[in-house]
Amino acid sequence: MIRINLLPHRELARKQRRQRFNAAVGLAALIGVGLAMLAFLALQAQIADQRQRNQLLQAEIKRFDSQIADIAGLQAEITALR
Question: What is the 3-state secondary structure (H, E, C) of the chain?
């Protein structure tokens, strides 16, 4: 009977499987980091937009506060004239 040594073939197959696995893990890690970066950038954009809206609202509040002060002054003048 002929004896064939399959150990080198099995070792080569094992090494190839290990390389494919490591490549898949590396690719998955890279994709995960990419998705995390995209999520971070999206959140930063939303935060910037919300800050801009808050600044606009603060400016409008200040404008209305000055109008309220003017109205209060006019009401005081009207009351004083009566």
Answer: CCCCCCHHHHHHHHHHHHHHHHHHHHHHHHHHHHHHHHHHHHHHHHHHHHHHHHHHHHHHHHHHHHHHHHHHHHHHHHHHHC
